[in-house]
Records
---
Amino acid sequence: MTDAPEREVAEEVSRIAEDIDTMEIRGAATIADAAARALAAQADASEAESPSAFLDELRAAARVLCDTRPTAVSLPNALRYVFRDVRGATVEELRESVRESADEFCERLDTAQHDLGRVGANRLRDGDTIMTHCHSTDVLACVEGAVEQGKSLSAYVKETRPRNQGHITAEALSEMGVDVTLIVDSAARRYLNDVDHVLVGADSIAADGSVINKIGTSGLAVNARDRGTPIVCAAQTIKLHPGTLTGHTVEIEMRDESEVIDPETASEIGDPEVLNPAFDVTPPRYVDAIITERGQFPPESIVTLMRELFGESPIQPWEL
Ligand SMILES: O=C(COP(=O)(O)O)[C@H](O)[C@H](O)COP(=O)(O)O
């Protein structure tokens, strides 16, 4: 790893990093968009007097952003994308180039989600019932695409403890005209027989086709397989984890126990140890398809797309 000197990052970068850390900004695609905009903000705010100082500041900003949440690979992938196209012999040229690259990335992110939605929509038939877990904008794009095709859908929406992101999904689906039923997480199996497709998003997809998504996804997938209900993962290619091509595993974020239980209640029940993993890993055998903006893939074949997109030796954004 290149050791960039410690540098102060722009206030806007610290604010965005804080918002990602506290989950004011959350969900893999939204985090990617915010991270790219943060690099542009760093470029705008920079008072560096040399190109190398300017680039050191950008690398420092990338580190601060990457340190927020470890599981969503869309974050380092976004930074990598922006860095890749940065060119210039002067600070002003570099600054302009970062702005352009970040804008282009955010546009591509929107287009990819729209294109993915059209692919996902084709799987859904008029009158289908889906089940969702957490809140995924890629999943919502598929539903939106189906609704635009004139299909009428119903949804069982899992609450998604401990942070109840299912509430955001319920609201978004209702606004699209989907008939929504909210259920607690543990009720999922009971209703799977009434469901045509389980639709989930992803924070990372590993080279073997494993889907890393909100905690509870793997249990849902095992239950869906047992009931014969197809499970589909909607994930733009920004979710493909290049490090897994070279044997790295995806770090699962452990969050604070206060999300699970307040200190007073914990004390009343004898202060048990509390574990709060934010994500889990669903092996490819439980996933029927991964839907991307490049089309639909069986999970086991995703490695081919990863090689095409990333090559074989991915590096961290601040190494560029
Ligand atoms: O697991 C989550 C969000 O977790 P958290 O709430 O902890 O960030 C979402 O399913 C993925 O990030 C995909 O989201 P999107 O499809 O919007 O990228």
---
Amino acid sequence: MTGRGSVNKKRRKKRYTYESLTETAQYLLDRVPYQPRIGIICGSGMGALAEALSEPLIFPYEKIPNFPVSTVEGHVGQLVFGYLSGVPVVCMQGRFHYYEGYPLWKCAMPVRVMKLLGVTHLIASNAAGGLNKTYKVGDVMLVKDHINMMGFAGNNPLQGPNDDRFGPRFPPMNTAYDKFLTQKAKQVAVEEDLGGMVHEGVYTCLGGPNFETVAELKMLGMLGVDAVGMSTVHEVITARHCGMTVLAFSLITNMCITDYNCYDEANHEEVMDVGKMRQDVLKRFVARIVDFIAKEMLTKDD
Ligand SMILES: O=P(O)(O)O[C@@H]1C[C@H](O)[C@@H](CO)O1
């Protein structure tokens, strides 16, 4: 076979199989003396969340069989195992984005590895632009739903042959974000003095890497989007496909500019700075949520 046909065949061949992901998980399980129950994904500039873990065991992505590598500033590129609130967790200090050149199934691959490691609950964080005008920079938006813009164009991490060992061909997505956990996170936020700064809203992921035009943002606003980013949706779809319970939140790192007379420009430095500025409060927030999952949810799963 020559030309495009053989290129496509090679690409298809490179897809992860259940077996190759099991190999990745086994590599890690051979080196970590416990199974993590909760997975955490750090958003841009929010890598410090992983620093809250005690007894950390660190695996740079380039050392893990079959793992992609992180190429974005603010994403260290390592898996950190450790204990948070006494619970064994695994933390992605650096995630993969579509704009890095990875297909969505590759961006979401670590979620399946987490599943094979024993993770039942995923906490996914991201940095996002605030489109809802009541939000302010530094606020937290608990994701109550998403709009899969890339999915509208037929781009989905579950595209391709389905392996039933992960989940069903046609997974539902109307209950993607766990209501019980989201409510608890809201309560924790109030207790942690984040009360007035925490919202529930709709997130969308665009392909990036450019930030959005005014017209694009106006359109997204009309669709009911509250925060705009470049990640998370494909991870959540993959997590729900394999039956994980999901909580996701966005740190609002900048306000989306929807005024043609405004000449401010979004930039990645600001995104990372706000992540750093809020790192202590987010560490406490995530630790409390992990504690709640351990006390209220994991015991029921056992
Ligand atoms: O990984 P996340 O979604 O937190 O990162 C956002 C989206 C882009 O990667 C970057 C833009 O500054 O931040």
